Amino acid sequence: MLHLYIIRHGETEWNTEKRMQGRLDSDLTEKGRNAALLLGERLKDTVFDRIISSPSQRTMDTAQLVRGKRPISFETDERLMEIALGDWQGKTEDEIKALFPSQYDLYWNHPTLYENPEGERFIDVMERVASFLEELVNTTPSGNVLVVTHGVVLKTLYLLCRNAPIDQLWDPPFMHGTSLTIVKLHEGRKELVLEGCMAHCR
């Protein structure tokens, strides 16, 4: 039986500015770094067989903080990267809404219909997440694996666990920075054990 401890990266400077990051990056805030340290303390007694991060700097920084002094290296996997957003990347939500009003509406209100000529659809993200999970179960069928990734990746993972349609992408819970989700993978089933938990920051 495999348990995935999946976290979203800590809060970044662009998060505070409501600026879309996608494949671009910005530094963790002090709040984001502190939350990652608190999560590391919360998980200090959990033994991880692997730590796998998106190759984005904000996720790798978060992974290092959560890992703490554990004598284990971490790997990166491009399938864990945030949704590619093309020309949206680096712009604030208000700027995107003004420049791409119909696309912006579809992104938030009709995600099945959302398309970005310079980026990815949500189904593209879901397919690479499914590929990651399938390979992970084959290579690491049991134990605990820490995965550090991004908000949209987590949201598509929830859909896969629930066998739900993309139109339910934005259903609760909200993915706060360093939120912890635990998924149990066993005999082809994906069970959400913990969803978007922020108990370490209370």
Automatic annotation (TrEMBL):
CDD domains: HP_PGM_like. The keyword Iron does not apply. PROSITE patterns: PG_MUTASE (PS00175). Its EC number is 3.1.3.-. SMART domains: PGAM. GO terms for molecular function: hydrolase activity. InterPro entries: His_Pase_superF_clade-1, His_PPase_superfam, PG/BPGM_mutase_AS, PGM_Phosphatase. The keyword Phosphoprotein does not apply. Keywords: Glycolysis, Hydrolase, Isomerase. Pfam families: His_Phos_1. PANTHER family: BROAD-SPECIFICITY PHOSPHATASE YOR283W-RELATED, HISTIDINE PHOSPHATASE FAMILY PROTEIN-RELATED. This is Histidine phosphatase family protein.
